[in-house]
Structure formats: structure tokens, C-alpha cells
Specification:
The complex is a heterodimer of chains A (115) and B (112). By secondary structure, chain A is mainly β. Chain A is 0% helix and 50% strand. Chain B is mainly β and 112 residues long. In chain B, strand 7 and strand 8 form a beta hairpin.
């Protein structure tokens, strides 16, 4: 079965550094999402993306965050200047609108640790 | 008030037991409902969608009460492999593309 993939699986960075988290959604999917999960907390929506535009973003998704689909296959989340509180698991998800497949499929996540 | 509320547990049950999880949601505009399963340090995986008429998938039964804004999951004949965190999830917005809103999750530990 096709899967969403994410790289890297783990990233450690210094506060203030830029990080780019990469995702390869399932190939025929059209809608893309980023979620994050701080350790011990619930999964939280960050942003949704369709047709090369942000569809919706949460309050968490401030000016330090950006998303891009640079080449038609990758979907990236950039954090411009990381803060300690950005430490979390970041999940990418994608969605196809087929008759019986209406839900989002999640990638394995990137664990980000900001020191 | 949290938009999706679940009892965090943990629920510790013996193999073969029946266990029920409950969930309430606050936003009546929620359109679709799901149970996801999350293993430790892994991604959420869809367990089942929840329909108003109730639905069953093997040992798992889900119920939705829109009037009470209440969702449930029943697991019969628990297996060791059912040990995980069960996430109650609602989707808001029109169509099927809206964001997912997750509950905190309910932890299940099935013991031999």
C-alpha cells in the first residue's frame, strides 16, 4: 500500500536555526497537511495546502513557519528561527478524494529537538 | 473547554475483556468522526470512521450520537496487540478536506 514518507526521522538543532522538514505524500493525493505533537500532548493541526496554496492555518502557524511544494512531489515545512517550544513530532498527512478513501494518511513523523 | 475530550486512562484490562472508550466534542459544526490508533512514538493510523447509524469492524464497534455530541468505541475480546492510545478525531469544515481535531487520547494496556 502506498505510504507517506518523511525525512529526516530525527533532527536536533540549536535554537534560532532554520530547519526544513520534508514529506513525500502519496502520489495521487491532492491535499496536504502538517500536524505536530508535543511530547505527552495531543496532535495539533498546523496547516493545510491545496493547489499550491495554503487552505487553512492554525494560530500555531505564525510567520516563522512556511510550507512549499517545490517540485510536484515533495512537501516541505520550514521553521525559520526555531524556538525551544518547537520541539515536537511533526507529522505530514495527505488526502485523496476517492469514493471510499476520504481520510488523511499520516507519515511516520520527524522528531525535532531544539536545544 | 477542549474541542474533543477523552478520558486519558490508562485502561488496564486482561486479555479477552471488553472495553469501551467515550469521547465528547463541543463543536456542533463537526462533520465527520473517526477513531485513530497511535502506538508509542508512531504516527496516528485510522482505525475506523464513525457513522450515525453505528458501525462495526470485526471486534470494534463505533457509535455516534449527534444530539449528545458523543462518540464511543467498543473493543471486544481484547488482544495484547490492542495496547495503544486511541484517539477520538473530528473533522470540521465543508467537504472531506477539512482539518482533523484530535482528542488527547485514551491509553489502553491489555495484559496477559
Amino acid at each position: 500500500e502506498p505510504e507517506v514518507t518523511q525525512t529526516p526521522s530525527h533532527q536536533v538543532t540549536q535554537m534560532g536555526q532554520e530547519v526544513i522538514l520534508r514529506c513525500v505524500p502519496i502520489s495521487n493525493h491532492l491535499y496536504f497537511y502538517w500536524y505536530r505533537q508535543i511530547l505527552g500532548q495531543k496532535v495539533e493541526f498546523l496547516v493545510s495546502f491545496y493547489n499550491n496554496e495554503i487552505s487553512e492555518k492554525s494560530e500555531i502557524f505564525d510567520d516563522q513557519f512556511s510550507v512549499e511544494r517545490p517540485d510536484g512531489s515533495n512537501f516541505t515545512l520550514k521553521i525559520r528561527s526555531t524556538k525551544l517550544e518547537d520541539s515536537a513530532m511533526y507529522f505530514c498527512a495527505s488526502l485523496a478524494l476517492l469514493a471510499n478513501k476520504e481520510t488523511q494518511y499520516f507519515g511516520p513523523g520527524t522528531r525535532l529537538l531544539v536545544l | 473547554r477542549k474541542e474533543v475530550e477523552q478520558d486519558p486512562g490508562p485502561f488496564n484490562v486482561p486479555e479477552g475483556a471488553t472495553v469501551a472508550f467515550n469521547c465528547t466534542y463541543s463543536n456542533s459544526a463537526s462533520q465527520s468522526f473517526f477513531w485513530y490508533r497511535q502506538d508509542c512514538r508512531k504516527e496516528p493510523k485510522l482505525l475506523m470512521s464513525v457513522y450515525s447509524s453505528g458501525n462495526e469492524d470485526g471486534r470494534f464497534t463505533a457509535q455516534l450520537n449527534r444530539a449528545s455530541q458523543y462518540i464511543s468505541l467498543l473493543i471486544r475480546d481484547s488482544k495484547l496487540s490492542d495496547s495503544a492510545t486511541y484517539l477520538c478525531v473530528v473533522r470540521r469544515g465543508s467537504g472531506n478536506t477539512g482539518k482533523l481535531i484530535f482528542g488527547q487520547g485514551t491509553t489502553l494496556q491489555v495484559k496477559p
